[in-house]
Here is the input.
Amino acid sequence: MADHAPLRTGRLVVRYHAPWRRRAIAIGSAIGLVLLLFGTFEYGRYRSGYSKYTELQHRRELSATIDRLEKENEQLRQAAAAAELAREVDRKAYADVEKNLADLQAQVLKHREELTFYRGIVSPEDGIGGLRIQRFQVLPGGAEQHFRLRLVLVQSMRQDAVVSGSVRIQIEGVQDNKPTELALSEARAEPTGDANLPFRFRYFQNLEQDIVLPQGFEPRAINVEVRTAKLAPVRESYPWQVQIES
Here is the structure.
């Protein structure tokens, strides 16, 4: 509606008002102010070096960097797992090699001892072909104060005759702070009353006897005497040393 000039009728003045115009002006002013402020803000950020494009580019670069680092981290994790597996395999292989080497060395030692043993039968080092004690061992038993005595008697192959006799064993030690001697009959695991071990062989014989020592008895040495009807007695004394059977 167009504006009309006021009509003057005497002293009375009539005016026509348009409130929507004021509202439009107010709204337009507010919008203009907002645009002005936003433009000022953007201009300030632009002048300070801020750019939406630059920010977007930075975000893309950071995202690409994160993806690359995650891939590299996964590759490193897989490489570390592979290295650990290889180390475990190497460790097991090394342990197997060590065990096989130890077994071979034990076999070599055993064969060497057997070779020495049989050489002693065929050709004694001292040149004496008579009866002798080739080996004596004290081995651990299955319980406390239980032991096994192992004795090997030989004679040279130069002697073709069968030899027989008995072995007398005495164990020296200390009990109740006093020197004490035990006869084999007192220490047998299964008492038989026989104080000696009988033997009969042509070239060699292994003798074994399980013994049980009295509680409190501390062994120090073992005296062995081999007797035959025709040959001179063979006497040896051995320190008490318990060996682990191979």
